[in-house]
Amino acid sequence: MAYRLRGDRRGVTLVEMIVAMAILMFVIAVVYAMLSYGNLTFALGNKQYDSQSNVRLASDFIAGEIRYATAVTIVPVATAQAEIAASTQASFLYVDPVSGNLRQSVYNSAAGDFTSRTFTANISSAVSSFTRVNDTTLGLHIVTTENGQVYTVTTDINLPNLGLNEEAILGDNTGLALRYSNDPPGGSGTNLGLSDDASLGFLSVSFGVLNPTFSPAIKAYTVTLPPGTPAA
User: Whole-prediction pTM value?
Assistant: First the structure.
């Protein structure tokens, strides 16, 4: 019995297989390139976000710390570090020129030492600065560089307590370190005209005049009345 072949049952030729594999490899290469580019863009975006967040955090922290300061002096970083080593009773904010980190040191009078904090911000000390805009306004210019990208934060910080107390920003016109204080004028724990063991028995205010009166050298103060103190 004879059988006839129906249709074309030939196999795939070598040329066809090579062409198919070439097309498949091209498609795989395109997909891989797209995925790699997406991953690279995502990673770069994360690094940019981290850098911007760090510099913004540093800027916001500085503004929050000194906005209501009662004394501000712009000093060189070396001066700030020397005064911290000498346990000078003040607070300091400065940019470390070696690491680019923002550092804060606050004197703890009870312990006789400093409480320190460090913010990793990769600040470019060569182009960043604190600047005295006027007697009561501090300019802040922070520049960071990450992966060839430059991020800049520039802002002016108004210091209302300096104006109220007829004080001004002291020291250099520009620098990378601040000595500052948030204590009331005259220092923390200043005696407001009363002896150390005195007890305030009454307090009255008439047309803006306090009774008892305090030293005219004190321009701002806080009075805490003992519980149950009658108001005159």
Answer: 0.61
